[in-house]
Amino acid sequence: MELASKGEIFVDIIDDGQLGIGTEIASLVARGQVQAGLISVSNLSPAAPIVDILNIPFWSASNQNYLNLVSSDVWKDKVLNRVASQGKLEILYHHITGARTITSTKLHGAVLKRPSDLSNMLFRTPSSHALDIFYRLLGTTPVKVKWKNAAQAAAIGRIQGLDPSIVGLYNGPNNLRQQLGSITLINSVHDGWVTIINQNWLQKLPNNLRDAVKKASNKTFKQHINTAELIQKNSKEALKKLGVSIYQPTVEELSLWRQISGHHKKQWLPYKEQLLGDSKAFNQFYDAANVTNKRV
């Protein structure tokens, strides 16, 4: 952004949760207390509920399906434009981080192969109504724990399981990686992150600087696509070295997860209608995610 604006915009990066994490960042950006931030889609959903469609499971979890979806016309028209129309913030670009997992804490320690293994399990959920529905369908007892408190909650047994992607688990706050037991790769929901920006600040910029922000965002988005899988691979290997086991379910086991909680279940119809106005509109998003030979 600094290069694209020829030094007229200076970016001061404040990391490690110094200003807050998740929904706290979304609030700061919406109020204009900071100009931009990086948060998960789940933590954006309270402020922009339409994005929670991504957290309905088993239709857009893979890197390619997610990339197809967020770069589609239907996504721009029905999601990005709707978020911007609220007049508070805009989504600059999406981050490809891999699918969410089903992960037991080190204290719990179980390998979670089938949905029945989650029965009554204390399962940490982020600020997403869709994920709350998902994990209730799987028989867990959802527990709301802020992302910054997940490591401590795992250490004291307040939660027994959680769901971030491999990348999220390895890079989680407060040394979360040290509190993990076994990771199961069910490929349910993409653990998408987004860079958001305060709309008022962006619109007040001169045209040339506003264009520079958009140009830099588009370039960063395209460049990071090429590194996404390598980052996921490196995070997985690093977790294995820490003693965390990683389980790949069989075809039969994966089928069980989908049968019990997939997007086709009637329990999803009311929420699809709440988000989209018509549950049939979901098919447009599904088709966009699952198109073949997509080029970005």
Automatic annotation (TrEMBL):
Key words of the record: Signal, Transport
Superkingdom to which the source organism belongs: Bacteria
GO biological process: transmembrane transport
Xref: InterPro entries: DctP_fam, TRAP_DctP_sf
Pfam family, one: DctP
Keyword Signal: yes
UniProt key word NAD: no
Family named by the database record: Belongs to the bacterial solute-binding protein 7 family.
PANTHER family, per the entry: C4-DICARBOXYLATE-BINDING PROTEIN DCTB, PTHR33376
Name listed for the protein in its UniProt record: TRAP transporter substrate-binding protein DctP
Lineage per the UniProt record: Bacteria, Pseudomonadati, Pseudomonadota, Gammaproteobacteria, Alteromonadales
Gene it is expressed from: dctP
